Amino acid sequence: MRILLTNDDGVSSLALTQLRRVLSPFGRVITIAPDRNQSATSHSLTLHRPLRIHTVGEDAYSVDGTPTDCVLVAFHGQLGEPPDLVVSGINHGPNMGEDVFYSGTVAAAIEAVLQGVPGIAASLVTRQPTDFTDSADIVGRLVRQVLERGLTRRMLLNINIPFLPPKKIKGVKVTRLGTRVYEDTLVRKVDPRGQDYFWIGGEDPVWRPDEGTDFHSVHAGHVSVTPLQLELTDHGARADLQEWGLTP
User: Fold this and answer.
1) CA separation for the pair 176, 154 (Å, rounded)
2) Count of Cβ atoms closer than 10 Å to residue 46 Cβ
3) Class level of CATH domain 2-178+208-242
4) Bridge partners of 61?
5) Alpha helices in the chain (DSSP H)
6) Whole-prediction pTM
7) Domain ranges, ordered by start, for the chain
8) SS3 for 33?
C-alpha cells in the first residue's frame, strides 16, 4: 500500500514526522507537502505559474503550491504509482464546523476522494506548541480501523483531536459539523502612514454548543470523527424548484 501524507502547515511541520512513524507499518509513506504554510487556502489550485517540486528527504517532497496541488502531484506528477490512501494533517488548530470549507487540510482529503481513493483529514484542537506524538498515535489507530473496514466511495473523514493527555481523552464520537458564531472575522487597523488596512482572522472562533457536533464532542474530551460527503445537492430544494416552473 502507498500512503500519501500531506498538510497545509508546510513540509517542516513536526506532525509529518510523527504521522510517518505511525503510518509506516501500513505501507510505503510518501510525503508531498507545501513548502510553506498554506492554511485557509481551501481547494485552490495553482494555475497561473509553474509548480516547483523539490526532494527534501527519502520519499519526501516539497511543492511551492497548495495542499490540493500536492495531491495532484502525487497522482499525476510522475513520482511513481498513485497512492491508495491520503492522510492530511495533523493540522495545528481545529477544523470544525463551517471551517472545513476554508481548510487546506480538509481540501487535500477531498481531492483524494475526487481522485478515487479514501481521504482522511486530522487536526489537533490547539495552537499551543506540541510535538504531535500523542495525536499521531490516535490517528494511527483510527487509520488502522479505516483500512480494516474501508470507506464508502466519495466520503472522507474529518478528525479533530482534543489537546489533552491521552488518559483524559474519553473516547471517539462520530459527529456532525457544528456551527460557528462569526465574530471579529475582519479587523480594521491603521498603518503608520494613517492608511486603513484589514486583517482577516480576529478572535478565535466561537462555536454553538449543540449536542452531537464536532465542537461539543471535542469540548467534552472526545475525539471527533465526522464523515463528509461530496454530494452538495439539496435534493429537497431541487424538488421544490421543479414546481416553480422556472423559465429563462
Assistant:
1) 17
2) 15
3) alpha beta
4) 32, 55
5) 14-23, 67-76, 104-114, 133-149, 214-219, 235-242
6) 0.92
7) 2-178+208-242
8) strand
Per-residue cell: 98: 463551517
Can you give the pLDDT of all 248 residues of the chain as single tens digits?
999 999 999 999 999 999 999 999 999 999 999 999 998 899 999 999 999 999 999 999 999 999 999 999 999 987 788 999 999 999 999 999 999 999 999 999 999 999 999 999 999 999 999 999 999 999 999 999 999 998 877 889 999 999 999 999 999 999 999 998 766 577 888 999 999 998 876 566 777 888 999 999 999 999 999 999 998 899 889 989 988 988 88
- Three-state SS at 156: strand
